[in-house]
Write a structure and sequence with these properties.
This protein is mainly β and 182 residues long. 6% of the residues lie in helices and 40% in strands. Bound molecules: calcium ion.
């Protein structure tokens, strides 16, 4: 699967997908604020599409007020999960993910996980290594990652993306954004 993965500069994209959380609960408020500093909101509201909100904290952030912290307690960062059908009827060519990350040291084994499932059955999974791209400790760094949409991915498949702290070391992720190229 790794051969389909390429680290690319964030090219212009034809469409953005995102979601806006309702203001009904504290957790949803967190997600909404997180959304608003990242990207254009172009789909209806799907409050279930952000995951792992329990990792949000205020102490170390790229943009106020929240960023996701992962460590030995929580290895999966704040991330995104939604059905492709919610992005529109077109066939997508690329899944683009961007985020900012801060690593307290450069020797951290972390991966961007991109998973696709259909009816709860995994049809695609890749863990894209980040450690070779970590330039400097304790500085926020932007990652832009695009990968080709796997064959036989349809509107009823569901995408999940998040950062996985494989070796359980402390790191931070912020301004997570997902978009599709058609
Ligand atoms: Ca933030």
């Amino acid at each position: 699967m790794k051969n389909v993965v390429k680290l690319l500069l964030f090219a212009s994209v034809a469409a953005f997908i995102s979601c806006e959380a309702p203001d009904a609960t504290e957790n949803d408020n967190k997600a909404g604020e997180q959304d608003s500093n990242a990207y254009v909101i172009s789909t209806p509201m799907y409050p279930e599409c952000w995951i792992n909100e329990h990792t949000l904290q205020r102490e170390v952030v790229h943009t106020q007020p929240w960023a996701s912290k992962i460590d030995s307690s929580w290895q999966d960062s704040y991330g995104y999960r939604d059905f492709f059908r919610n992005a529109g009827p077109q066939m997508l060519k690329l899944i683009n993910v961007s985020f900012w990350a801060l690593f307290p040291k450069t020797e951290i084994d972390a991966k961007l996980v991109v998973g696709i499932d259909s009816m709860e059955t995994q049809t695609f999974w890749v863990g894209i290594e980040l450690k070779d791209s970590i330039k400097t400790a304790n500085e926020w760094q932007k990652f832009n990652i695009s990968l080709g949409t796997p064959a036989k991915t349809g509107p009823d498949h569901r995408l999940t993306v998040y950062v996985w702290g494989f070796d359980k070391q402390r790191m931070y992720v912020d301004d997570f954004a997902v978009s599709y190229t058609y």
